[in-house]
Amino acid sequence: MNIIRQLHHALKINRTLVRYGLDEFLAPTPLAILRPIARLFSFSFSRKEQDKSRGQRLRLALVELGPIYVKLGQMLSTRRDLIPPDIADELALLQDQVEPFPSSDALTLIEQQLGTSVSAVFSHFNPQPLASASIAQVHEATLKNGEQVVVKVLRPSIRQKIRRDLNMMHELASWAEKYSSEARRLRVKEVVKEYDATLEREIDLRIEAANTSHLRHNFKQSELLYVPKIYWDFTRTKVMVVEKISGTPIGQVQSLKEQGVNMKALADRGVEIFFTQVFRDSFFHADMHPGNIFVDTTNPDKPQYIAIDCGIMGTLDEDDKRYLAQNFLAFFDRDYRRIAELHVESGWIDEDVSIPEFESAIRAACEPIFGKALAEISFGHFLIQLFQTARRFNMKVQPQLVLLQKTLLYIEGLGRQLYPELDLWETAQPYLKRWLREQIGPKAVFGEVKEQLPDWLHKAPKIPGMLFDNIQRLSHEFEKFEELKKDITQLEQYKLKQNIAQRDAIIGIGFGLLGGMFYLSQELSVITIGTASISLFFLAKSLWPKKVK
After folding, report:
1. Cβ-proximal residues to 301 (8 Å cutoff; 6+ apart), any chain
2. Over the range 444-462, which residues count as b (16 or more CB within 10 Å of their CB) and which as e?
3. Identified catalytic residue from 96, 268, 287, 423
4. Where in the cell is it found (predicted)?
5. 132 among the known binding-site residues?
6. Long-range pairs for 167-170: beta carbons < 8 A, 24 or more residues apart
7. What SS3 string covers 501-520?
8. First-to-last C-alpha distance (Å) of the chain
């Protein structure tokens, strides 16, 4: 039954794409031969919105397919180096201009979640949505105390829709890994599983509220980033109330320039915020498309970022951070051998790989980048080169880094729009060097000692007693060990005695059988008596074996 549902959903996706004429994207590729098949299984000969551009049709199709596909469009909208401008412009509208759901549904859900009427909580509530995205929409409101807020409300039945699409993705991932070694190398099933967990967290607004609160704490009093306040008394699973912010959407580049914003400073600060979140806090905003970022232009020379929508956050452990920082710095120094060694040490590449060969491949991928500004660097082409390198050396995809990789793509896309001359690597290098010094230098050692010292001083008076207890415990363990050795020796002696007894018994039985044969032949009575005596001797010896030394 599940297979039938999945097949039905796959056919629905195909029908939607064909009806919007999106099979035209296959035309210039080797997959063009599949167009007649796709059209046949669409079971529809009608076309929708044929008077619209391909970008508009793609955007409308993604909206019709659902939230997961909308999020895919959001990510692609920042990759203007990979997709044509007309498509990028249309996909950018997916960031906060998805078709809203009826306000009556939003009001009903708010009252169900809060357990009271809207008028009891808000002195004013705007029924017209301020913005509408793939997972939720937001409304402006005013609390009874006069504070300006926005109310975020999940879309009706969004959990069921996401689960349907994710089930399809799980099925496709299993099928891909079953029949494709490349899919197994990329660990597609693990990636989909991680994405599944991420979306599950995003559709629980209490988790988003907690993420927002934590990010706000990390950047408290910071001039770089402002995170709005959460109103916990009015936050539930499907409803969240948060401070209303005012700022210029970061995608409105021309408006920022007209306000006199220092675009280089803005771009530099964005890079610093990203690396601070990743390496200082191990907690980074992983959905940094332009719809979620605003700019406070009060001080144009020192513009401050404002971050909203913290539903998707990424984390890294200490080992991942250290390897990433060392890889980045090795890249800055063009130390390709160190990059190859780090990949092996981290387990991303098998230990039996040829380091010199891997080093040479990395050099071929990285060397063309140096000496160019960000505007001249095709990171899409660079990622393709690295992907080809990964295929050659069986590099394993790290699921914990998928969100980080996506966020890096967003950072690059924003960098291109804000300040095309920005050298991302030059901006990041000083920060990473400083972070590594803090982690492994003398200051880091002193800091660790300083941190642990109170605990050591607290335990110091107990150390003599602890030493005495440990010595006693070791003494008892040694006595047990000696007893065990004695038991083992006795066991070995017993086994040896048993073996000797078995040998004597076999010899006694053998001579007994031989004596019986002589007795039955009624000849050689002396020999018969002799063999019988020997038999009795060995049988008796087997019953009372001597002590083995």
Report:
1. 262, 265
2. eeeeeeeeeeeeeeeeeee
3. 287
4. Cell membrane
5. yes
6. 167/2, 167/6, 168/6, 168/9, 168/10, 168/13, 169/68, 169/195, 169/196, 170/196
7. HHHHHHHHHHHHHHHHHHHH
8. 74
Sheet strands (E) in 33-178: 122-125, 131-132, 136-143, 148-154
The amino acid occupying position 81 is D
**Maximum average pLDDT range among 69-78, 302-311, 424-433, 524-533:** 302-311
159 pLDDT above the threshold of 70: yes
**What is the residue-averaged pLDDT of the chain?**
77
| Residue keyed to tokens 């190398």 | 185
> Is 287 designated active site?
yes
- Is 134 annotated to bind a ligand? Reply is yes
Q: Is 131 annotated as a binding residue?
A: yes
Find out whether 130 is annotated in a ligand binding site: yes
Length of the chain: 549
Question: In the chain, what percentage of residues exceed pLDDT 70?
Answer: 63
The answer to whether the beta carbons of residues 537 and 508 sit under 8 Å apart is yes
- For 350-374, letters b (16+ CB in 10 Å) and e give eeebeeeebbebbeebbeebeeeeb
Supply the pTM of this predicted model.
0.67
Q: Using CA atoms, how far apart are residues 539 and 345, in angstroms rounded to an integer? A: 66
**Which residues are CB-contacts of 400 (< 8 A; sequence separation ≥ 6)?**
194, 315, 316, 317, 320
Q: What is the DSSP letter of 230?
A: B
**Any idea where the domains of the chain sit in the sequence?**
2-95, 103-261, 318-440, 462-543
Question: Residues 66, 158: contact at Cβ < 8 Å?
Answer: no
Distance between alpha carbon 68 and the CA centroid of its chain, in Å?
17
